[in-house]
Amino acid sequence: MGNRKFSVIIAEDEKLIAKNIANSITRLNPNYEIVHVASNGQEAYESTQKMLPDVVFSDIKMPVMDGLTLISKINDTLPKVRTVIISGYDDFNLMRCALQQRAIDYLLKPVNYDELEKLLQRIEHELLAERKILLGRTTDSEDLVESINIYIKHNYNSFIDFSEIADRFGFTQAYLTKVFKKYMEVTPARYLKEYRISVAKKLLMSSNLSIKEIADQVGFEDPFHFSKSFKDVVGESPNQYRKQK
Description:
By secondary structure, the protein is of the alpha/beta class. Helices cover 60% and strands 11% of the residues. The protein folds into 2 domains: 6-125, Rossmann fold; 136-245, Orthogonal Bundle (Arc Repressor Mutant, subunit A). The N and C termini lie far apart (46 Å).
């Protein structure tokens, strides 16, 4: 990685809390760099569009624009940016809303240092894995599979072209499929489908989103294809599954 650091924007209207979060992040993992601290959601959104950070940590209650709106807008415009909510509210509904907006975690104030350190490590590993895919530098088969696994989990909601990924590594798609299946016991395409369906199952049981909206959120082009894939994996339609609520 060299001297490359992972850039972080913090959105927090309480200056002292923002300073403590910033200091905690850089102290727990020096591979992160705080590039901006915003005092409201709108400022955080504008700075995210300009600076394109790797991660945004946001308070949930802020002036001008709240944290949920912020991460929703970031997800719409910059889906590769990871977002983390930091909240003083131990509220299941708020947590569920944050996860529906694809926040990768929901931390409670005061932030637990062990939890934050583990989260920073997880994000770092995921970002490095994505860079390996983009740069195509790994030749170790187990490392390759792990990189693709992580890439799928953070890009399942968008189009994934396995032939393009294989090409980046200098492999054929057939070889990539063979190696992936050796370690995961399923093809990359099947793994992607099953992962998308696992996320859809959670949304079906925890939200009132329509089938079309859920299909779109988990990366399917249309609800018909989604329903067909869902039945293939689960054995029943999305509507039948939802009736278990």
